[in-house]
Design goal:
The protein has about 200 residues and is of the alpha+beta class. The chain has a domain of about 60 residues: OB fold (Dihydrolipoamide Acetyltransferase, E2P), CATH 2.40.50.140. About 50% of the residues lie in helices and about 20% in strands. The protein has 10 helices and 5 strands, in the order βββαββααααααααα. It has a 5-stranded mixed β-barrel. A hairpin with a 2-residue loop joins strand 2 and strand 3. Helix 8 crosses helix 10 and helix 9 packs across helix 10.
């Protein structure tokens, strides 16, 4: 329902903020790390949001970037992971690092997140990979044929492209961003970080 909320930051707590819009205060739950990145109270902020509706509760969850929102939505689609658990995970891992771990079946990275054991990490990888294949297999095939051959031939570049796809970006957006980066001298994570700066 709400794509983002833009207003005056009235309250910063440990796990939520309150944004004033025209005299109405919106309580938005956020990761502690995301709250720490916000400006001081009294300033205008823009927060990307996800609204969760249950029989006895309606809650808003907030994020500083679309990448964090995308990671949250991926996490809550995994069986056994609720909104609060997903928010806690966001406090302990960057979206780009998370995307790379899922793509590369990297259990070691995922199990470093508090509350995520080996079985949970395996379930995250299995369910998110399956979901991506089911929802966008044809799109990914089309994207792969359109991406510059040079990008596909380089493992670092290809991993960066796949990670950015997981975060919800289209091939055309990714290709334009990568054209502005000196790719040959960068690691996968450096490519992703620079691409995200351009994309956001």
């Amino acid at each position: 329902m709400f794509s983002y909320i833009k207003g005056i930051l009235e309250i910063k707590s440990t796990n939520y903020v309150v944004i004033d819009i025209g005299g109405v205060g919106f309580k938005i739950f956020m990761a502690e790390s995301a709250i720490n990145k916000l400006s001081e109270t009294g300033n205008e902020v823009k927060i990307y949001t996800h609204m969760q509706v249950r029989e006895d509760d309606i809650s808003l969850y907030g994020f500083n970037t679309n990448e964090e929102l995308r990671m949250f939505e991926l996490l809550i689609s995994v069986s056994g992971i609720g909104a609060k658990s997903a928010i806690a995970m966001l406090s302990n891992i960057e979206p780009s690092t998370f995307a790379l771990a899922v793509i590369n079946d990297n259990l070691e990275v995922l199990t470093q997140i508090p509350g995520v054991g080996k079985k949970s990490a395996q379930r995250i990888i299995l369910e998110l990979k399956d979901k991506i294949k089911q929802t966008s297999s044809e799109e990914i095939k089309l994207q792969a044929s359109q991406i510059n051959v040079e990008i596909l031939e380089n493992n670092n570049k290809q991993e960066a492209v796949e990670a950015l796809k997981v975060l919800g970006y289209r091939n055309t957006e990714i290709e334009k961003a990568l054209q502005k980066i000196q790719l040959n001298t960068l690691t996968v994570e450096e490519i992703i970080k620079q691409a995200l700066k351009i994309l956001t």
